[in-house]
Amino acid sequence: MGVADLLFKRKKELAEKNLRSGQDFLVENGKRESVTTLPSGLQYEILVETDGPKPTAKSTVKCHYHGTTITSKVFDSSVKRGKPASFPLNRVIKGWTEGLQLMSVGSKFRFTIPPHLAYGEQEVSKEIGPNSTLIFDVELLEIK
Prior knowledge:
Helices cover 27% and strands 30% of the residues.
């Protein structure tokens, strides 16, 4: 077995492990009273709720976010950088596009995003392996 075969096998095993761990986490998380699971599999918890207009899939939004794995490893955080991020909702992972449309300015949600709404089988970084379930705390600051 060559190096390429070993790397492929390792990635496949990691993807399967991450998928199982993520599915188990989503099942347990979904049992919590404060968590809503949408038909797509996206889960959300409202941390701070506000009234007002909500973005569409074509909106550009400005927000603060803090992203972790299901094992609490931080992989990205605009909060830690002290600088909010702006982006069009049709240019981000599907879980963000779907989830942020539920929010109004000033609200804060926690999204638990299954792999098929995140990066799928793609290994994005050391922290985000293939089939990773991701958790984001998001505060919507502005709809542009």
